[in-house]
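Demo today. Your pick:
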Amino acid sequence: MSAHMDQLIAQFENFQAKVRQAEASFAGVGDMQERIAQVENSVTSPDGTVTVVAGAGGTVTGIRLAPGAVRLGSDQLAATIMKTLRQAVAGAVQQQAGIVDTTFGDAFGVNLSDQVREAQAEAFGTAAEEPASTPQAPAPQAQPRKRRPGPPDDDDYFDQNILRR
């Protein structure tokens, strides 16, 4: 009976150690989420006519065209926008993968950054070692715009009689 009890105690202690290890691994989740929310990658085309800003998850948060951009032909401008957009999104996704790797890479033995680079290399036809974009420091956060009040809800008939007499 004593050997059986010792075995149960050892199993319980092993279980507690794994719980502590899991808690330590996931302690950085809140910080990771905050850092991911701050991801921003800005890329300007080589000719300076197009700038694209991408955020977490590759969401495009801004596109700026220089005054000279309108002088480009429509096909060239479209191609420049698309190339710059792909680079901005790729860089933002790489930054996000790096944050996840920093937080969980060792715990799960996965290198998400390498996987992202390989997927981007396949999708964009670039070498896996060469990132599709160079991450840049985040721009200062602008104050959120205040929204104008919207038009009144035309579907709200509660204060009106919709039947005619």
Summary: The domain at 1-124 is CATH 3.30.1310.10 (Ybab; Chain: A;). Residues 43 and 88 are 5 Å apart (CA to CA).
